[in-house]
Task: inverse folding
């Protein structure tokens, strides 16, 4: 214990809590991760953002010792995450669909707590995640939101130093989501390291300081929340025009999609695009502007949408 | 470590007993086989009935463990709870030992009716001392079959595990001499049996409850199988990464 305290005092800010070096993971012929480099320093709150199937969960499973990389190196707390000794300060969430249905909430909490030398007292954990009234309920009978709360609570049961939260608030109502965010923030404020995955920018914005954007198994961006928001903010300007738009050389145009006689212009700045259209005397009617989903933005970013 | 083993055993037992039909099911077959095959054919002969009961108990031990672990584990691995348990700071040992304790408990449940039927409906006899000795022997001979089941469960996907367990169990039972009285099987089986895990196990049981002579070769072979399946199970657990797409 004294050793660790000394270590923390010596340089917590520079200590690398989790590291991936040139990590590739393939499942048969499918490449889930392609030469990923990532460092998470102690005390950071990092969001892994990407569409479904981007490789976020695979990356997390490598960090939490569930899988081995096909190539490259993964480190957790300075060692191989496949070695249980390096997972003593790790907290992770199960998928909420995966809780053992016949066991009670209290029993599942006890089971997880038993794996740690100095776990949070049961009552405190239940209280912090609003599970007090559910302690005798079998997990199979919980609602989706209750399961999610239990799943996240389990990540904190062992007083971890680093937690990996996989889509922690998907499907929660606003109040429950805010409570959970609060729990994550207070853990982080006490010096804990957090890596959370989400395909909602909103959730990452609410919690993370640093965002790592992952798509198709690669790191597309690793930056501050503000910088990444600028990068992935894509709007769709839709209009009907009697002439093709290719001849106008519009500034800020990332891609054009066409459905019937509707043109959809994808651009980071919708206001500027509309000004461009007017300035260049492009004939159009039925103008419509709306933000794109994260999925659409990623398609543009990864170049899948270029026409 | 010990407490973690007990924790795993407790949770596996709770899960098992919350679905009572599974427990009833594993107790049903050995009892039914006793009533169908042993009681009518060897029930009146004290020596024959004692041998047959010992064989049936060995059969039940192999059967329960091979299926419970082979299929149970590969089913568990397909559940999303399993990858989570693997993120906890525990290696293979507490999970393995926990499973073994649970398996032993399940065996008591499935063997109790067999013993009861033997005592009530056959002439099988056993001194109290031999009965006491038979309990740890049952536990000991279960270990290689538990490890065998674990190897299958961790190495193979669900459907393959079921097939392999089904393919293995009958040759093991017949080849080990569980379905015939001692000396009653065809010659090549008599020669082969002591070297099979089932043969080694049933010989140890016979020695414990009858005046069948102790067979050191068969017991040594059984110990060898135990070490082999233990190594295989640990290897299969280490290379296992759960479902391919999580």
Result:
């Amino acid at each position: 214990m004294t050793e660790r305290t000394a270590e923390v005092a010596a340089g917590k800010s520079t200590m690398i809590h989790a590291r991936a070096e040139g990590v590739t993971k393939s499942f048969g012929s499918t490449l889930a991760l392609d030469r990923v480099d990532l460092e998470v320093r102690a005390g950071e709150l990092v969001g892994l953002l990407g569409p479904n199937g981007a490789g976020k969960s695979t990356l997390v499973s490598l960090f939490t010792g569930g899988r081995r990389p096909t190539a490259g190196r993964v480190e957790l707390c300075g060692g191989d995450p496949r070695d249980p000794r390096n997972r003593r300060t790790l907290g992770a969430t199960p998928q909420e669909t995966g809780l053992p249905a016949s066991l009670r909430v209290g029993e599942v909490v006890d089971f997880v707590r038993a794996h740690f030398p100095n776990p949070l007292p049961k009552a405190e954990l239940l209280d912090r995640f609003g599970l007090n009234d559910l302690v005798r309920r079998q997990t199979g009978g919980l609602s989706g939101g209750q399961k999610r709360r239990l799943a996240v609570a389990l990540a904190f049961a062992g007083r971890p130093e680093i937690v990996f939260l996989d889509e922690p608030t998907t499907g929660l109502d606003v109040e429950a989501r805010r409570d959970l965010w609060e729990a994550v923030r207070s853990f982080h404020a006490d010096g804990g390291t957090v890596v959370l995955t989400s395909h909602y920018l909103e959730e990452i914005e609410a919690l993370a300081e640093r965002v790592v954007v992952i798509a198709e198994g690669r790191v597309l961006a690793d930056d501050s929340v503000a910088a990444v928001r600028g990068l992935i903010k894509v709007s769709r300007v839709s209009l009907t025009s009697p002439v093709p738009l290719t001849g106008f050389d519009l500034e800020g145009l990332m891609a054009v999609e066409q459905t019937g006689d509707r043109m959809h212009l994808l651009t980071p700045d919708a206001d500027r695009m509309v000004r461009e259209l007017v300035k260049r005397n492009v004939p159009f009617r039925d103008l419509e502007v709306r933000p794109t989903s994260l999925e659409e933005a990623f398609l543009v970013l990864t170049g899948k949408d270029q026409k | 470590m010990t407490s973690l083993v007990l924790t795993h055993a407790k949770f596996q037992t709770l899960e098992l007993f919350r679905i009572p039909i599974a427990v009833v099911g594993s107790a049903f077959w050995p009892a039914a086989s006793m009533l169908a095959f042993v009681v009518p054919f060897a029930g009146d002969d004290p020596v024959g009935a004692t041998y047959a009961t010992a064989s049936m108990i060995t059969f039940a031990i192999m059967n329960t463990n091979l299926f419970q672990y082979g299929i149970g584990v590969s089913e568990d691995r397909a559940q999303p709870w399993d990858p989570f348990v693997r993120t906890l700071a525990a290696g293979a040992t507490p999970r393995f030992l926990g499973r073994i304790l649970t398996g032993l408990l399940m065996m008591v449940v499935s063997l109790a009716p067999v013993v009861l039927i033997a005592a009530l409906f056959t002439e099988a006899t056993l001194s109290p001392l031999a009965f006491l000795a038979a309990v740890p022997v049952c536990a000991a001979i279960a270990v290689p079959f538990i490890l065998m089941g674990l190897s299958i469960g961790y190495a193979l996907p669900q459907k393959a595990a079921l097939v392999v367990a089904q393919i293995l169990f009958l040759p093991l039972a017949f080849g080990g001499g569980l379905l015939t009285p001692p000396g009653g099987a065809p010659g090549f089986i008599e020669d082969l049996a002591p070297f099979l895990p089932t043969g080694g196990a049933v010989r140890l049981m016979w020695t414990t409850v009858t005046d069948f002579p102790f067979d050191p070769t068969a017991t040594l072979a059984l110990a060898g199988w135990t070490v082999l399946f233990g190594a295989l199970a640990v290897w299969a657990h280490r290379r296992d990464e759960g479902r391919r797409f999580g």
